Each structure stands twice: as structure tokens, then as C-alpha cells.
């Protein structure tokens, strides 16, 4: 048999190095699927049994737990199945997150805490062979901030009542300074992460603005050529007939600049000659409109003719910073018409 086997193997062209092993002897089986066996011997004789078991962390679910070496020198087959042990599903963590892919033997859970919370306990756990997690779920507790330092010439106002010497995540502190001191930078400090609020300092300096400059066509309530302190105010005015638009009062801000200045807007003249206009509820002939001037934002109406209906109608137009557009429907009569037939002008006939 040995000769024949060797011949067969040579004929089949295989490179043979292990054919010296005796027939009818089983060599150590190669096991897969997390199965292991007892004993360390390399060869077994026919009739010998091997006890199989599952590796640590795996549980047998079916199939015989023994294999036998047969007369042919091969082991009987086994349908033994080993499945990994299950750990319980992890609990949720308040104010944190739980990351895991599986809950079987050797799976890992990672825990994180939301911003502003810190962890007490282990940040990860491994499913052990015993079917339990290596550590319990951690807790996420709010990070305490120290209280915001109180400024010498001002105060700190918290958005919530503070007890003791710590502030909780999310608490905001707003700095107020007594003029002429001003908060430089962000006046709001927030407890966002560990000790963040004490890092966010509030710097105090005396803030001044340069002497205010009057606006074009305007004047100032205070002409002192000095530096003005934070929160000092000055009023702007406009020379007549200019009209002030914006805030009359400007204030020295904590950035050392004045708040937005107002501006002085120009009056308009009504560029029609032979007509009667409507201004401030009164109908006025242009030759009596003295001076020919309406103020910024004033409304003036001119009269147009509805030729089909033979009636007149007033069309309003507004003075915007020196510009008063005359509506296109307005037609200026000839001097002759204006002098001889004033009663036929659109301002005088029946109104539509
Ligand atoms: C847990 O964290 C480790 C280390 O950062 C990482 O390698 C692993 O992928 C994470 N596992 C999960 C399920 O997020």
C-alpha cells in the first residue's frame, strides 16, 4: 500500500515530503470556528477520541463535542458550532454618547460626553469572556467654571442665579462698566468648557472718542475741542432750511468711535412756472410761492389733465435731498394760455 501510494503521488506530479507518515494514523486536526481541543499529541491512532470545546468567550450551541480517528487515518467530522458570548446592550449615557458596533465577546464600547460635561469613569469598555462589560457606563457631569472675576469699576450680571463659587455649563456673565470705563472686547463671558470663563477676560480702560466733527450744513451742541469719554453724548443740528435725517444724538462708544452721525438733507425748489400746486393742504399759484422751496421729505402735488374725461387730478411728488421730480403727466401751459384762460387749467377745472 505504501509503495502504491508513493507511486500514485509521484505520478500525479506532486512534490511529496510528508508521505513518510504512517497510514491509519490521524494527524493533529486543524480546527476552525473558534473550536479548540484538549491534549497536545501530534498523532492519534484509529479509535482514539478527541474532546472538543469552544475557545474562551464562545459558547457551544450544537453538534457532538467529540471526534474519532477512523481506520482511514481521518477524523470524523463535527458539526459543533461556537458562537461568541453576548454582553448586555449598553445603557444610554445622559449628556453623552455611546458608540459601539456589536455587543459580542471582544466588542468595544466607546463613551464620550457632550461639550461642557466631563466624564467620571472609564471612556471605553470591552465585552469579556464572562459575557459582562469590563467597566460600567461612565457618568457625564457638568463642567464647573469658576466665577467670572468682578471688575473694579463695574459689575458682572449672570443670566441665572449662581450659588456657591462655581458656575455651570452654559451660564453667561455680562460685564457692565461704570463710565468712563468701558468693556473692551466681548462683554459676555460664557461657561463653555473647563474654566473657560476665567480665560475670557474683560479688560478695562478709559475709553475716549476724538472731538466730534460737525456734519455738512450742520452744527454741534458742544464745540469743545477735547476728547470725550465713553457714553458722553453730543447733539447735531442742521442749518435752515436743511433737514436732519438719522439720530440727532451721537454717543461715544466703547470702541472709541462715535455712533453713526445723522446727515443734513437739502430742500428742493419746485421747477414749474405757470401752474398752481398743492402744498401743505393749500393750493398756491407759483407766482405766490415765495420762497420757491420745499423741505426734504415734503410732498408737493402738481395737477395733470385727463384729456379723455376733461378733468384734472393732483399727482404727488416728494422732495428727496434736493431733488423733486415733476410727474411726467404735468404739462406747462403757454404764457398766453396761462394769462388769458387760467380757468381752463387742470387745477381749476372739475377734478376727476
Ligand atoms: C473606540 O475608540 C477606539 C480608539 O479611539 C477606536 O479605534 C475604535 O474604532 C472605537 N470604536 C467604536 C465602536 O467607535
TrEMBL record:
Q: Which UniProt keyword terms apply here?
A: Disulfide bond, Glycoprotein, Heparin-binding, Repeat, Secreted, Signal, Sushi
**Which cysteine pairs are covalently linked by disulfides here?**
26-69, 113-140, 209-252
PROSITE patterns on file: SUSHI
Cellular component GO terms held in the UniProt record:
extracellular region
The record's listing under Gene3D superfamilies reads: Complement Module, domain 1
Q: What residues does the Sushi domain cover?
A: 24-84, 85-142, 207-266
Coarsely, its chief localization is secreted
Q: Where in the cell is it found?
A: Secreted
- The residues forming the signal peptide are 1-21
Q: Which GO terms describe its molecular function?
A: heparin binding
Protein name, per record: Beta-2-glycoprotein 1
Which organism's genome codes for this protein?
Answer: Xiphophorus couchianus (Monterrey platyfish)
State which gene encodes it.
APOH
Amino acid at each position: 500500500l505504501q509503495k502504491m501510494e508513493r507511486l500514485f503521488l509521484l505520478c500525479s506530479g506532486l512534490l511529496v515530503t510528508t508521505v513518510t507518515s504512517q497510514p491509519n494514523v490521524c494527524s493533529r486536526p486543524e480546527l476552525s470556528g473558534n473550536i479548540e481541543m484538549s491534549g497536545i499529541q501530534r498523532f492519534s491512532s484509529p479509535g482514539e477520541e478527541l474532546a472538543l470545546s469552544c475557545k474562551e468567550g464562545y459558547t457551544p450551541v450544537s453538534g457532538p463535542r467529540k471526534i474519532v480517528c477512523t481506520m482511514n487515518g481521518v477524523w470524523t467530522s463535527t458539526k459543533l458550532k461556537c458562537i461568541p458570548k453576548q454582553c448586555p446592550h449598553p445603557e444610554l449615557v445622559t449628556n453623552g454618547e455611546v458608540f459601539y458596533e456589536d455587543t459580542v465577546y471582544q466588542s468595544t464600547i466607546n463613551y464620550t460626553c457632550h461639550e461642557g460635561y466631563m466624564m467620571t469613569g472609564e471612556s471605553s469598555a470591552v465585552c469579556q469572556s464572562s459575557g459582562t462589560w469590563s467597566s460600567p457606563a461612565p457618568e457625564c457631569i457638568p463642567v464647573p467654571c469658576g466665577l467670572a472675576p468682578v471688575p473694579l469699576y463695574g459689575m458682572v450680571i449672570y443670566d441665572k442665579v449662581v450659588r456657591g463659587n462655581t458656575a455651570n455649563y452654559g451660564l453667561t456673565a455680562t460685564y457692565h462698566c461704570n463710565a468712563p470705563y468701558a468693556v473692551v472686547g466681548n462683554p459676555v463671558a460664557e461657561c463653555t468648557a473647563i474654566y473657560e470663563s476665567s480665560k475670557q477676560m474683560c479688560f478695562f480702560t478709559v475709553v475716549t472718542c476724538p472731538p466730534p466733527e460737525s456734519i455738512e450744513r450742520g452744527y454741534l451742541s458742544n464745540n469743545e475741542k477735547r476728547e470725550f469719554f465713553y457714553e458722553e453724548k453730543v447733539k447735531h443740528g442742521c442749518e435752515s432750511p436743511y433737514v436732519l435725517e438719522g439720530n440727532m444724538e451721537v454717543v461715544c462708544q466703547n470702541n472709541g468711535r462715535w455712533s453713526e452721525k445723522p446727515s443734513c438733507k437739502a430742500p428742493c425748489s419746485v421747477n414749474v412756472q405757470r401752474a398752481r400746486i398743492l402744498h401743505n393742504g393749500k393750493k398756491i399759484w407759483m407766482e405766490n410761492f415765495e420762497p420757491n422751496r420745499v423741505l426734504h421729505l415734503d410732498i408737493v402735488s402738481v395737477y395733470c389733465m385727463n384729456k379723455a374725461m376733461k378733468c384734472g387730478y393732483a399727482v404727488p411728488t416728494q422732495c428727496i435731498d434736493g431733488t423733486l421730480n415733476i410727474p411726467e403727466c404735468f404739462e406747462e401751459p403757454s404764457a398766453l394760455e396761462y394769462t388769458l384762460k387760467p380757468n381752463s387749467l387742470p387745477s381749476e377745472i372739475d377734478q376727476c
